[in-house]
Amino acid sequence: MKYAPVTERLASLGGAKWGVHFRARALAAQGRDIIELTIGEPDVLPPQQLVDDAVTALRAGRTGYSNGRGEAGLLAALSARYSQRRGQIIGADQFLCLPGTQTVLYLVLSALAAAGDEVLVGDPMYATYEGVIQASGATMVPVPLHAEHGFRMQAADVEARITAQSRVLFLNTPHNPTGAVLTRKDLAELGEVARAHDLWILSDEVYEDLVFPGISFASPMELPELAERVIAAASISKSHAAPGFRSGWCVGPAEFINRALPLAETMLFGNQPFLADATAAAILHPSPVATGMAQRFQVRAVVLAGLLDGVAGLKVHRPDAGMFALLDIRAMGMGGEAFALALLEAEGVATMPGESFGAGLAGWLRISLTRPDAEIAEAGRRIARFATQRG
Ligand SMILES: Cc1ncc(COP(=O)(O)O)c(C=O)c1O
To answer: At the N or C end, where does the chain have fewer CB atoms within 10 A?
Structure first.
């Protein structure tokens, strides 16, 4: 049978990146003692209030069809939250509600880019970005993110890759996998490039609430000169430890939202009213679980650095946000994948090879900080032992 080219473009993505993770699961199923630091699931349950609100709404019969834009109560709550956070009035007509950031990214890129267009995106990047860009038909143009700049995207690196086909600058702040948070100055400089070349800016801000104490978050939405070209995406997956709720949204110029609405309707015909009600109530107040997660993840990164920095030339890159730390293993003379597989077999510690997030992270490991303190410390000791033996 014949298939559309999109199936070809996406066929090679996915599986290979998760080789260490799948091997770890297989070893655990055989009874091996495995510390799994591959994926980043929040280490707490969602707030009880969120669950109660969803159940109450379900019992109240909030189970009918919604509409492509989102439930009125959620749109109003989003308008209130973003107006307050971004320091300007952001109307309910500037949002579309969708099941999670992932769907938003798919929809936004489908609405903005097509075959022949180029999407500039930081390398390393979150594992699904290549797929959402490829699905649109556009070409991905990786912009290297350098450790010496704290993995914050530099405007000059974007400028150097601009062509007549450049269409979208895809940002992720706070960033997965590096934990980098773009500063207002970074955003102003990146915004200049976007304006000079008439690019859209798509900003994945799903980790906004997991910025570590002492670090400030900034969004390109806060820069008035970018108002007509910024679309931001987020959800309650991270902020409320509720990835299974699949409750997210995008916010952008009303004109973009109106253009994208038929696409959203075509894909989904709206998301679930009972989840929308629970989300609306949750986002009007600071999340009761986000601060605790951010504090714990920051401490765990420090613990890892204390155990690993300097051991056989290893170095922990300390994140400013999010759920992961990066370990620089380049001094060991092994690629990330080979190191991660050997570490898993020898010590039962599962980590993600940096290469899974792009060529720019070859020779690094991504370590999830979402396991209990004692497990993180034990993993640090095992990695140190492994590196000392191999070093
Ligand atoms: C950078 C980034 N964007 C998007 C997502 C997906 O988020 P959601 O659950 O809202 O679809 C993730 C999940 O890990 C992520 O790390």
So the answer is: N
With a 6 Å cutoff on the Cβ, whether 126 touches ligand 1 is yes
Do 70 and 271 form a contact (C-beta atoms < 8 A)?
A: yes
The minimum-distance atom of ligand 1 relative to the CA of 103 is 11
Over its length of 391 residues, how does the chain's per-residue pLDDT go in tens digits? Answer: 999 999 999 988 866 788 999 999 999 999 999 999 999 888 899 999 999 999 999 999 999 999 999 999 999 999 999 999 999 999 999 999 999 999 999 999 999 999 999 999 999 999 999 999 999 999 999 999 999 999 999 999 999 999 999 999 999 999 999 999 999 999 999 999 999 999 999 999 999 999 999 999 999 999 999 999 999 999 999 999 999 999 999 999 999 999 999 999 999 888 899 999 999 999 999 999 999 999 999 999 999 999 999 999 999 999 999 999 999 999 999 999 999 999 999 999 999 999 999 998 999 999 999 999 999 999 999 999 999 998 7
Question: 3-state DSSP call for residue 57?
Answer: helix
356 within ligand 1 shell (Cβ under 6 A)? no
Mutate which of 38, 98, 101 for ligand 1 pocket (most atoms within 8 A of beta carbon): 101
Phi, psi of 116 (to 5 degrees): 100, -20
Q: How far apart are CA 388 and CA 378, in angstroms?
A: 15
The phi and psi torsions of 105 (rounded to 5 degrees) equal -60, -40
Asked if residue 101 has its Cβ within 6 Å of ligand 1, the reply is yes
Q: Is the CB of 248 under 6 A from ligand 1?
A: yes
User: What superfamily in CATH does domain 5-45+289-390 come from?
Assistant: Aspartate Aminotransferase, domain 1 (3.90.1150.10)
Q: Where are the domains of the chain?
A: 5-45+289-390, 48-283
User: What's the CA-to-centroid distance between 313 and ligand 1, angstroms?
Assistant: 32
- 174 CB near ligand 1 (under 6 Å): no
Give CATH for domain 48-283: 3.40.640.10
